[in-house]
Design goal:
This protein is of the alpha+beta class and 701 residues long. Helix 4 (147-159) packs antiparallel against helix 7.
C-alpha cells in the first residue's frame, strides 16, 4: 500500500496531518475507521509503544537438522539449558471426550502417514481470537484470521506441531489417508488448484480429495464464521514424501517446512490435546473421544556415553555431573548402563539429529560455550622442531619447492574432467569413476592424469597472449574407486619457447623439448633425496606421449614416472598449437632416502687428488640405446668411476651401414693415492669389456 502523508487542503482548509486506519499503517486489514489510542499516552510517545508493538524480536536462522527449534519451546529449552531462565512444564492433562466421534479415520498409506489422530468438537463459535493471542501472532509476522485457524498457526510456531481443522459440516463420511491417484486435483485454501502427483499423500472423504497431507488444506472443508462443528487433525507424515510432493507441486507452507525436516513423532496426540484446550477456551464446544489410526514411527534410542570423551574430542575439561546436567536440561534422560564407566542416555523423540556420542559432545560444548575450550598453540615448544606431515606430504612439499625454483608456476585444477578426454589419457571405462551429478557436463569423470588439465591451462594462457608457460601440480589421480586405485602424482609441463628471444642466437629461445621435461623430472626426484644416476630410462611411455620423444624412468622393477613431448594428435584435438613437453611422477613409488641424513645435502668433501678423464668411442648397432652404454661403462668399477657422459653420436662415412659411433667420457677419481698407468689401462679394459658384453659394441679403431 503506497500512502504518503503530506500537507494538503481539505474542503479549502490547510491540513498538516491525517487520521489513518489499520490498513494504511500496515497493521491489519481494517479500513473502516481510524485507530483510537488510549488517552493515557502523551503526545510524542512512539506509536509502537502506544499500540503495544514494541516487543523485542529475536530472529533466528535454523539449520535443517534442528526442526525442534522451529517452535518457540525448542528455543526456550536450549536457552534454559544455558542458564537463561527456566523451562515451564507442559500441561499434558488429557481432555475427556463426552461422545464418540461421528467422523472416523483410516490410513491406507502407512509408509507416507504412519500415525493419524483426530477429534470432533461440536457447538463451536468461530470468531476473532482474543487480542492478546492475535498480538502474539502479529509479533512474528502472522496474520490473524479466525480463532480456529489462529490456534493451528500458533501451535505450529510455538510447539513446531502443525495441525489442521476441518469444518465437520462439510465433510462427507470418514477421513481416509491414501496415495494420490493420477489426474486428481485439489482447490487449496490459498485459492490455487493443484494437479496432484502420484507420490503425494491425499486426505480424502467420500467426496474426494480434501487436502494435501502435511502441506496444505482444501478449500472445500475450510472453516468460516458459520462453522459450528469441527474435526481437528494431528498427524505425522513421512519427511521424504512431503519434500518430494512439495517440490513437485511447488507449494510452500509452514506445515511443509516442518514436516519435511522431521517433527517430533510423539507430538501427535499431545498436539491434539493442546489444540482442543485452546479451541474450547476461545470458541467453546463439546469434544468427542479421540479417533486414531496407525502408531508413532519411533523406536527407543539410547547412547552409552563416557564423560571423558568430552576432553578427548573437544579438548574441554568439565565435571561429569555438569555434563549430565546440561544433557538432562536438553531432554536426554539418564539411565543405567551395563558397561563400566558409561552412562546410558535416552535420546528425546524431538532430537532426530542426535545419533552418537560425538553429537552429545557437540551439545555440551554448544551450551557451555565455545569460549570454554582452552587455547592451545599449534606451534612447537621453544627449541623443538619436528617436520609435520607424512613422508608422502613432505615429499610433495619438497617437489613443489624444487619445481618452483626452476621457474614453474603451481596450479590447482579440478580432480575431474571430460569423459572423452579422460579416455585419451588412460582413463579406462570404469563406470564408478563417472560422476552422477557433475558441476558441469565437461567435468563428469575423475581424472586419470593431471596432464590434460595443465595442457588446457596452457591453451587458455596462449589464447590470452601468454604462449610460453611452465606449470606444475601435485595431487591425486584415479584408476578405480578402491583405496589402492588412487595415486598421488606430481606433473609438470612446459609450452612454447624455453626462454625469451635474445641477440645471442636462436638457442637462447629454442622451443621446449623432451630434455626440458627430463630435467624437470630429475630435479623433482633429486629434491626427494633420490640418486638420479641410479635410475634406468626405458621406452615405456603411454600413447599420449610422442612415441619417439618420450621415456619412462624406472628403479629396478618400480616405475617412477614418464616424461617427454606430448603426442601431436593430442595437442591438435585439444586445440593447443604450441610445442609442449611434460612429465608425470608417482610420489608413492619414490623410495625413502637411505641413511640418517635423509634428503639433506652431504657436507662438501674435497678430493685430495685430481680426477682423470678418458674418452672411448664404440661402434654399436643403430638400435642400441645410449643409456645402456653409459650404464655398462659405469658398472665397470663403481668405486673409481664417478660419472659417465655421452658427448658424441656419429653415423655415416667410415661407419658401417646400420651402425653408429657413440663416444663416452669417463671420469675416474683416485682415492688416497694416484693411479698408475697399469691401473688405468686395466680399468680401461674393464670398461671396454663391460660395454662389449652388455651391448655388443666394440672399440672404434
Amino acid at each position: 500500500l503506497d500512502v504518503t502523508l503530506k500537507k494538503t487542503k481539505i474542503r479549502g482548509m490547510e491540513s498538516n496531518g491525517m487520521l489513518v486506519s489499520g490498513r494504511e499503517m500496515l497493521l491489519s486489514e481494517d479500513h473502516e475507521g481510524i485507530i483510537e489510542v488510549d488517552e493515557k499516552w502523551d503526545v510524542g510517545t512512539p506509536l509502537a509503544k502506544a499500540l503495544g508493538l514494541d516487543d523485542q524480536i529475536i530472529e533466528i536462522s535454523l539449520t535443517p537438522n534442528r526442526v525442534d527449534c522451529a517452535g518457540v519451546r525448542g528455543i526456550a529449552r536450549d536457552l534454559a539449558a544455558a542458564g537463561m531462565g527456566k523451562l515451564r512444564p507442559e500441561d499434558e492433562t488429557p481432555v475427556a471426550g463426552s461422545f464418540a466421534s461421528p467422523v472416523g479415520v483410516r490410513i491406507e498409506d502407512l509408509e507416507g502417514c504412519p500415525h493419524f489422530t483426530g477429534r470432533f468438537i461440536r457447538g463451536v463459535k468461530n470468531g476473532p481470537s482474543p487480542a492478546w493471542f492475535q498480538d502474539l501472532l502479529k509479533a512474528v509476522g502472522q496474520k490473524p484470521i479466525s480463532a480456529l485457524v489462529d490456534v493451528t498457526n500458533f501451535l505450529g510456531l510455538d510447539r513446531a506441531r502443525p495441525l489442521h481443522v476441518y469444518d465437520a459440516g462439510k465433510l462427507r463420511g470418514d477421513i481416509v489417508v491414501r496415495t494420490a491417484r493420477k489426474g486428481e486435483t485439489l482447490l487449496a485454501l490459498n485459492g490455487k488448484t493443484y494437479e496432484l502427483s502420484e507420490d503425494a499423500l491425499a486426505i480424502c472423504d467420500d467426496s474426494g480429495v480434501i487436502g494435501l497431507g502435511g502441506i496444505v488444506g482444501g478449500a472445500s472443508t475450510g472453516c468460516d464464521e458459520n462453522t459450528a462443528d469441527v474435526f481437528v487433525e494431528a498427524a505425522y507424515f513421512d519427511p521424504a514424501r512431503i519434500a518430494r510432493a512439495g517440490r513437485m507441486l511447488q507449494v510452500s507452507s509452514d506445515a511443509r517446512y516442518r514436516f519435511e525436516r522431521g517433527i517430533d513423532p510423539l507430538s501427535t496426540r499431545a498436539g491434539l490435546e493442546m489444540a482442543t484446550r485452546l479451541i474450547l477456551e476461545f470458541c467453546g464446544g463439546e469434544p468427542s473421544q479421540i479417533v486414531e489410526s496407525g502408531n508413532p514411527p519411533l523406536r527407543d534410542r539410547f547412547i552409552d556415553y563416557n564423560p571423558g570423551y568430552l576432553k578427548q574430542l573437544a579438548g574441554m575439561e568439565m565435571p561429569a555431573p555438569e555434563q549430565l546436567g546440561i544433557l538432562a536440561a536438553l531432554g536426554f534422560q539418564e539411565g543405567k548402563s551395563g558397561k563400566e564407566g558409561l552412562v546410558r542416555l535416552a535420546v528425546p523423540s524431538w532430537r532426530g539429529d542426535v545419533e552418537g556420542k560425538a553429537d552429545l559432545v557437540e551439545e555440551i560444548v554448544r551450551i557451555a560455550g565455545f569460549d570454554r575450550i582452552p587455547t592451545v598453540s599449534v606451534r612447537p615448544a621453544a627449541g623443538a622442531f619436528r617436520v609435520p606431515g607424512t613422508p608422502l606430504l613432505v615429499r610433495a612439499r619438497k617437489i613443489r619447492a624444487a619445481l618452483g625454483a626452476r621457474g614453474l608456476s603451481e596450479c590447482i585444477t579440478w580432480s575431474f574432467m571430460k569423459g572423452e578426454l579422460a579416455a585419451r589419457f588412460g582413463g579406462g571405462d570404469d563406470p564408478a569413476l563417472t560422476l552422477s551429478n557433475p558441476i558441469s557436463a565437461d567435468l563428469d569423470r575423475m581424472r586419470p592424469s593431471i596432464l590434460p588439465n595443465l595442457i588446457e591451462a596452457a591453451g587458455r594462457n596462449r589464447a590470452q597472449g601468454y604462449p610460453d608457460v611452465a606449470l606444475f601440480e601435485t595431487g591425486p589421480v584415479f584408476r578405480s574407486c578402491a583405496p589402492e586405485g588412487q595415486d598421488m602424482m606430481a606433473a609438470g609441463i612446459r609450452a612454447g619457447a624455453r626462454g625469451p628471444r635474445h641477440w645471442t642466437g636462436p638457442e637462447a629461445s629454442r622451443e621446449v623439448d623432451i630434455y626440458d621435461a627430463k630435467a624437470d623430472m630429475f630435479a623433482a626426484l633429486a629434491s626427494c633425496g633420490m640418486p638420479v644416476t641410479g635410475v634406468q630410462i626405458v621406452r615405456e611411455a603411454p600413447d599420449y606421449y610422442h612415441p619417439g620423444r618420450s621415456g619412462a624412468v624406472r628403479l629396478g622393477k618400480v616405475l617412477l614416472g614418464w616424461f617427454g613431448e606430448i603426442h601431436p594428435a593430442i595437442l591438435r584435438d585439444m586445440d593447443v598449437k604450441a610445442p609442449l613437453a611434460g612429465f608425470e611422477l608417482f610420489l608413492n613409488n619414490i623410495p625413502q632416502p637411505r641413511g640418517k641424513g635423509g634428503t639433506a645435502k652431504p657436507y662438501l668433501a674435497l678430493e685430495p687428488l685430481q680426477p682423470v678423464m678418458r674418452d672411448f668411442a664404440f661402434i654399436v648397432d643403430g638400435d642400441v640405446e645410449a643409456d645402456s652404454l653409459v650404464r655398462a661403462a659405469q658398472a665397470a668399477d663403481r668405486d673409481l668411476i664417478r660419472s659417465v657422459s655421452l658427448f658424441d653420436v656419429y653415423a655415416g662415412k667410415g661407419v658401417e651401414d646400420g651402425k653408429k659411433s657413440v663416444a663416452l667420457s669417463v671420469t675416474i677419481q683416485p682415492g688416497e693415492k694416484s693411479l698408475t698407468d697399469a691401473q688405468l689401462e686395466d680399468l680401461a679394459r674393464k670398461v671396454i669389456a663391460g660395454v662389449e658384453q652388455k651391448t655388443g659394441g666394440r672399440l672404434r679403431g
